């Protein structure tokens, strides 16, 4: 899961916050989760 440090989960959670998939759009939380995903080695998260 995202909170346990799994970078793909962190990236997907960031996408949910960015685009409002099932939750209200929150760009601050999206950025937080993109950063965490990048720190944990997710390549695409660093491109955004």
TrEMBL record:
Cross-referenced SMART domains: SEL1 (SM00671)
Stored Pfam families: Sel1 (PF08238)
Protein name in the entry: 8987_t:CDS:1
């Amino acid at each position: 899961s995202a909170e346990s440090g799994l970078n793909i989960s962190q990236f997907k959670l960031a996408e949910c916050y960015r685009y409002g998939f099932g939750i209200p759009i929150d760009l601050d939380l999206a950025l937080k989760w993109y950063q965490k995903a990048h720190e944990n080695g997710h390549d695409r998260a660093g491109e955004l």
